[in-house]
Amino acid sequence: MAELILKTLTKLYTQAQSPAVDQLNLSVRDGEFIALLGPSGCGKSTTLRMVAGLESVTSGEIRIGNKLVNDLHPKDRGVGLAFENYALYPPLKVRDNLAFNLRAHGLGAKEINRRVDEIARTLQIQELLDLKPAALSSGQKQRVNMARAMVRRPSVLLLDEPLSHLDARLRVELRTEIKRLHAEQRFTTIIVTHDQLEAMALADRIAVMNEGVLQQFDTPLEVFNHPANEFVAGFLGEPPMNIFRSVVADAGRLVIPGTDFALPITPAVQKLVGSRKELKLGIRPWGIRVSQTQTGGSVPGVVTVVEDLGDETRVGVRYGEVLIMASIPVTRRYRPGLPVFLQFNEEDLNLFDPTTGERLSDGSYPPTPVTNQAGHNNEVQAPVPR
Question: Residues 6 or more apart from 347 whose CB is under 8 A from it?
C-alpha cells in the first residue's frame, strides 16, 4: 500500500484537440478508496491508464509511495489492474491465470501456490481454480479478474469499470464484496465508474471529472450535499437536481421567470447574490413537498409524469414554463393532469453563478476550487471536519 499523488497530470493526444486530462491534481492517502466519477469521455479511464503505465504522460507527475513512476514499465509500478472486460487468458485455468504474473516476477512455485490459495479463499473462488474462463459466469469472471489484480499485493489497486457488464443483482453483490475486501485488505484503491450509486457506496472520497477537468474532490455526502458547481449538482442524484434560471426582482425577491415563485432576498441570501441580477437556482427532488392542499408559500402546478419505482414515487409537475421533478412517498397516489401545490424547502435551495456555474457559498462550507480554462487551479485538499 502507498500514497498516490498526481501533480498537474495532463494527457494531450493531438495539439488540435482539448486535453483528455487537463492539469489534474489529486492526492490519494495510503489505504484510501477513491472513485473517479464522470460521464463518458471525461478523462477518468485515461487517468487510470496513465497511473497504470498503459498511457504515456504528456506532462505532470505520478508518484506512488513518493516515487516518481512516469517512465517506469507497468510491471515495475507496483499496481494491480482489474479490467472492464476481464482480460483473462482463455487457454489457462483460473489457477494459472492467477499465477501468471507471479511466475513472470520469478516467484517460486511454493510461494505462488500459497498466494493463489490465499486470494482464492479471500474472494471465495476456490471451486473455480481448475476451470477455464469459458466455463465461468460473468460474476465469476469478475471475481477472478479482481483476484488476479490483488494476488500481486500491489501498492495501488486500479479498478476500471469492474461492474459495468454485470446485471443489477450481481452489481449489488460484487459491490458489497469489493467493500468487504477493501475493509480487510486496505489496498490504496481507485475505481473508475460512471455509476454515481457505485461511487457513493464504495468510495471514501469521490473525484468528479468533466471534459478532462476535476470538478470536485470530497466525501460522497459533501459532494452530494454541497456540490461545487452546477455540473456536479446536475450529475449526482437520480433524478438530478432541478435547476432553473432566476432573476433578481426590484422588490427584493428572487423569481423564476414564467412562474409566480418568489424567494425573499434575506440578508443571508443577499450576501450570496451580491450585485448579480441573474442566478441559477437548484433544489433536489426530495426538497419539494407535493400536496393537493394549498398552504402558505406553496405554488400551483399540474402533474404530467408519474413514475412508481416501488420504494419511492417520482412525479413531474408542470409549474409555469418549467417541469419540476419531485420525489414523494409511495403511499401517495397522483395521476397525470391532477392539480397540485408545491412547496420548496428553503434549506435545500442552492444558488449558482450563471456565468461560471460555481455554487454560491456563505463561507461556512466554501465550494471546492474548480479548474477553469484560464487558471487550472484544481488541487483539492480534504475538508476539515465540521
Answer: 287
